[in-house]
Specification:
Elements lengths: L8 E5 L4 H12 L3 E6 L2 H10 L6 E6 L5 H15 L4 E4 L14 H26 L5 E6 L12 H21 L3 E8 L5 H4 L4 H9 L3 H12 L9 H12 L10 E4 L9
Parallel strand pairs: 1-2, 1-4, 2-3, 4-5, 5-6, 6-7
Helix pairs in contact: 1-9, 3-4, 4-5, 7-8
């Protein structure tokens, strides 16, 4: 499907792996110039090389998005390279599965800094440029846990609920010049789950099982209608659609890409 994104300029945070990488690749395949921000320089340059065969291009911008300086510096480098911006995808995020009693103030702060404050800081840095775009768009990556929290992880769920609240506020504040939407993925098989200390391993600690058995157990508890984890590409396709003029009357919305995990009407 031609989403008519050719020539547009996009910034994607957390773009080295998982949903962020898939989103950068999908946008580049549609002809976008993409600034890919992430702390993982090696994976960023692998993405940059892989994108050479696509219609658009990817520029690697190494940045520690858990800090104010990293966000401002990364955004400034991307904006300087492009001279303009049409699409911002706030994707970066991480978390571990810990019971509430085990979460320290430092744990809460680290989660909020990366998952929520990166969104605040990158958006604040990019807004003046986005407001000049013909069809400026922001897409924030939240989570099904923002709308339907589970017992763990409380800090991750709260940080993603804050992302949804910010999405609604920005959509009201920045319309009609900018559209602002969010995706709320369910469990998606990415390094977020598979890395050492990721969701699979820490669910194993919580449930007292091997990581893969713990993941299967957790999915059975959540009773997903599709009975599987999603893929990064399945989320990236929705983000790319929301970034395009095909979604021109969509703003302030939350798109669940969750395999049916959220059961509420709203």
């Amino acid at each position: 499907m031609d989403l008519q994104l050719n020539g547009r300029q996009a910034l994607v945070t957390g773009a080295a792996t998982g949903i962020g990488r898939a989103t950068a690749e999908h946008l580049a395949a549609e002809g976008c110039r993409v600034a890919a921000l992430d702390i993982d320089e090696t994976a960023l340059h692998e993405l940059e090389e892989a994108a050479e065969k696509l219609a658009g291009s990817v520029v690697a911008v190494p940045a520690d998005l858990s800090s104010a300086a990293g966000c401002s510096g990364g955004a400034a480098q991307a904006l300087e390279a492009f001279g303009g911006l049409d699409i911002l995808v706030n994707n970066v995020g991480s978390g571990a599965v810990r019971h509430f009693d085990a979460l320290t103030d430092d744990d809460w702060q680290r989660t909020l800094d990366l998952n929520f404050m990166s969104c605040v800081r990158i958006t604040r840095a990019c807004l003046p440029t986005l407001r000049k775009a013909t069809s400026g768009v922001i897409v924030n990556n939240a989570s099904d846990l923002a709308r339907q929290p589970e017992p763990v992880p409380a800090d991750y769920s709260a940080s993603k609920a804050a992302v949804l609240s910010l999405t609604k506020s920005l959509a009201r504040a920045e319309g009609p010049a900018l559209r602002v939407n969010a995706v709320a993925p369910g469990p998606v098989w990415t390094p977020f789950w598979t890395k050492p200390g990721g969701f699979a391993e820490t669910f194993g600690d919580v449930h007292g099982m091997e990581p893969m058995a713990a993941v299967e157990h957790e999915m059975s508890l959540r009773q997903l209608p599709l009975r599987r984890l999603g893929t990064p590409e399945e989320v990236a396709r929705v983000i790319t659609f929301l970034a395009s003029d095909a979604a021109s009357f969509v703003t302030g919305s939350v798109w669940g890409v969750d395999g049916g995990s959220v059961r509420s009407l709203f």
